[in-house]
What does this fold into?
Amino acid sequence: MVDQVKEPPTFQWDVRVYWEDTDAGGIVFYANYLKFFERSRTEWLRSLGIQQQSLKDSSGCMFVVTDATLRYHRPARLDDQLVVTASMIDIGRASMTLKQQALLKSERAEHPPATLLCEGLIRIGWVHGASLKPRRIPVSILDSLKN
Amino acid sequence: MVDQVKEPPTFQWDVRVYWEDTDAGGIVFYANYLKFFERSRTEWLRSLGIQQQSLKDSSGCMFVVTDATLRYHRPARLDDQLVVTASMIDIGRASMTLKQQALLKSERAEHPPATLLCEGLIRIGWVHGASLKPRRIPVSILDSLKN
Amino acid sequence: MVDQVKEPPTFQWDVRVYWEDTDAGGIVFYANYLKFFERSRTEWLRSLGIQQQSLKDSSGCMFVVTDATLRYHRPARLDDQLVVTASMIDIGRASMTLKQQALLKSERAEHPPATLLCEGLIRIGWVHGASLKPRRIPVSILDSLKN
Amino acid sequence: MVDQVKEPPTFQWDVRVYWEDTDAGGIVFYANYLKFFERSRTEWLRSLGIQQQSLKDSSGCMFVVTDATLRYHRPARLDDQLVVTASMIDIGRASMTLKQQALLKSERAEHPPATLLCEGLIRIGWVHGASLKPRRIPVSILDSLKN
It folds into this structure.
């Protein structure tokens, strides 16, 4: 049963599917899972006290995606309610990697509670905002991330 | 003080600004307010018991935007928390018009509670999904909309 | 025959409809006409020697949309070839207004050559990039625009 | 010199960067490279006589992305002119894999002609449009793809 979630993810964020997310195939346009994953990552960071706009204003630096690997399992459709997870699986001095999943919430009481739609590995680097050159992640942020 | 909200809107929906919503001007890309307005309209419809995907499956019909008038007052930025309103101001047998506003939530306790960013008039028609020809809105939906 | 073009537009830009532009209604998502209109405006400016990124780098200022009025006539679908026009109808010291149309190119030799899909009035202001406060359009740009 | 193109790609398609493609980091939003790649794939298919909307209308089937692996090398900015390549590196009875690159066109006469911005491996399956179940790619399409 590869489509079921085995263990509780580190962070979860609800995402509703609107017209803007769909394409003429009647399903969510595949590129948009990168948006859903980012909303969840952003809220995960916010839950750790990390606000990206404030950080950019104060440090001149920002997180950017350097690698993404995506596998699409099943489609989502208009009005579907998704849960999007974010789980840090690796962190270094200048980058980190997250495992993320988009799951379809079941609206019935029966099992399974969620069906896997898309999963991805997202590697994120910390860079200077103007030059986009890699920088070491500030210790205060590292501490928050490793909490 | 034209930038302040005078009366409580019919329906409110929170929208957070993510990277996906912004452009190189450092602000929310103006076309995306149409997406924010639609999220609020969709949730307003859902609050009335109207689910668009189910409706399309059962009736073969759907709502489409036929006219939009937008005025941009102030920009929103990454991480801003918005409130997006939806207020029906006119309804006929085949279409309705909503007034919508995107407001910036103030995070401070002082007044004003919200600053107007963008407002729009959105006219929506009820059409057949395949031909996109106008149809009369079903009475059951009209009743829900006029509740 | 309101759906036919009466006079040759000032500027034309071809736009092809891809999956990214469509929604689950099987048609182009209405907000995306704002993108199509902007591509045409950008290329119109480029044809006048006005490059927006260079301008922003050199002057610190940029054009922003302040008002948009859109009317949707007929839908476009995947693979459709559109022509998007841009025609300046008014210009002041700090803003200008363009009339724009998205037309479906007919692939048959018969008339009409194009069917009107969407038309809009787009008002654009010249603002400082950081404060977003209105500024007077530089004379050199005004001259190019009025050529 | 990993950032330079070693061999002529199978197919090339020009893509211009507009405001809609950028984010508040001042660069192209990373998810949008999936759109650029798809425009190039779509035009590659069209160059082989394969029109996706017609195919869906006639066969009830369509191509969907099942896997995507993306590596981001350097950022693109507003007004940049890109070349986006598509090169089929594997094909089976129900899917194919393409290697794609987004390159920045140099506007100067000197070498290199292009700088690598983003590269991806995109696996595409052929599925039934309603059920989204995998199907064997029709022989006539296979023949065109293998030409």
User: Anything to note?
Assistant: The longest helix of chain C spans residues 32-47. Chain C has one domain: 3-146.
